Amino acid sequence: MIYIMKYRIYSAALVACVMLSGCSSTESRPEVSASMEDLVSAGSTSVTTATGDVESQVPQAEKPDSTSGEATTSSVQVPTAEVTTTPDADSDFDIFYSEVHEQFDLSEEELSFVDYSLFVGDSICSGFAEYGIVPREHVAAKGNLGSRSFFDYTFKFRGKEDQTYDQVLSTSKPRYVLLSMGMNDVNMVYEDTYCENYRKVIQATLDGSDADVFVAAITPVCSKFCANSVIDSFNDYMRRFIEKEFPERVHFVDFGQYLKNDEGKLRTCLHSGDGVHLGPYCYYIALWEMHRALMEAGLWDGTKPTDGAKPMPTYEAEPEATSSATTAEEPEETSKPQTSKPAKTTKPAKTTKPAKTTKTTKTTTEPTETQPVEIEPDERTVDGTAPDTDTSVETPIEIPVE
Predict the structure, then answer these.
(1) Which of 58, 73, 122, 228 has the highest local Cβ count within 10 Å?
(2) Boundaries of domain holding 233
(3) In this structure, is residue 169 part of a structural domain?
(4) For 217, which DSSP code?
(5) Would you say residue 293 lies in a domain?
(6) pLDDT value, residue 89
(7) In the sheet where 117-121 sits, what is the strand order?
(8) Does the CA dihedral 194-195-200-206 come out positive or negative?
(9) Structurally, how many domains does the chain consist of?
């Protein structure tokens, strides 16, 4: 029995030792967690930087999980911020220009086709003149104009108001006509109606001039004005319509294709502020596309028309005429007392010279005394003469003469 009791005591002591050794192993886990921190720091420097910032404000022992969560969110936010702020050719014009300007540059000789060209259309077309890309006397454009309402409008052209389209053509005598409209049609009519309305404008141009006609595609937008898919559909209809109905003298040009971003919208760096109207550089691209079409059709040899046509008449004489008219009006307005006209009214008094033998001195003194006082614009008769007191002197003089 004594041996049995000793065996049990020894066994209990052995079990106690094993249990004590197990407790010591659990207390050593902080060393393992420290080694995990070293592993994380070795694997990702961005995470340790973020956790380091958090550790300076919050003790590590209180919220070890929160630091790792904040580190994760900070690492996600940094790349998204970089993506939104990075400039590209869609939002930054300088980047876009640096990428494409060599392609769209034209020399002065190449641009000389403008001297033979008339640009007709809506407010987008007016940008050719408003930005000074094309001389104003080569542009006939009106806001709100569309193919459906084209003949309801008149133009101010070369100093004259209310000019019909026929008058514009007869005055300018263009060799080439660019028609640019349609933005005011896309929300109002269907594609087939749009083409039929445009047919009338094209035919009027062909009948009223010897010009080749270039129909410009509707340009893209980056606003809610209209879906670009609708604009693309209108342009596709017009392209096929021209190929079928006007095989000669009419050409379709699409400079809007160079203004689109990857989503098919107008680049945000190319509109003028409303997402619809175009910025200045777009019109240089339009001229480049028109020049390309001229060369492709064999209508331009690089410096002049291939058929030897003459440039449009210059508009130099009319500004001089308007300036001379203004200078003539200014003296009349400033000389409202009109001292020169009263001097003319004294000339009829000189016709009474045969009566000089009677009162020559009085007739000369009396007009000089009354001239600055009595002769006023309100007292003139219909023929421009002034009824002054000389008539009372003339009547007794004329009696003895008769």
Answers:
(1) 122
(2) 93-314
(3) yes
(4) P
(5) yes
(6) 85
(7) 139-141, 117-121, 176-180, 212-216, 250-253
(8) positive
(9) 1
Does a structural domain hold residue 76? no
Cα separation, 178 vs 180, in Å, equals 6
Is 111 domain-assigned? yes
DSSP one-letter string for 250-313: EEEE-GGGGGB-TTSSBPTTTB-SSSSSBPHHHHHHHHHHHHHHHHHTT-B-SSSBTT-PPPPP
Report whether 106 contacts 288 (CB < 8 A). yes
- The token pair that represents 255 in the structure block: 């400079």
- Cα–Cα distance for residue pair 374/53, rounded to 1 Å: 98
pTM of the shown model:
0.60
Cβ(219)–Cβ(232) under 8 Å? Answer: no
Token pair of 400 as six digits: 């003895």
Instruction: Determine which helix (DSSP H) or strand (DSSP E) holds 110, and give its type and residue range.
Output: helix 108-111
Quick one: which H or E segment has residue 215?
A: strand 212-216
CATH of the domain at 285: 3.40.50.1110
The span from the CA of 279 to the CA of 79, in Å, is: 32
What is the distance, to the nearest Å, from the Cα of residue 136 to the centroid of all Cα atoms in its chain?
15
pLDDT tens figures, 217-252: 999 999 999 999 999 999 999 999 999 999 999 999
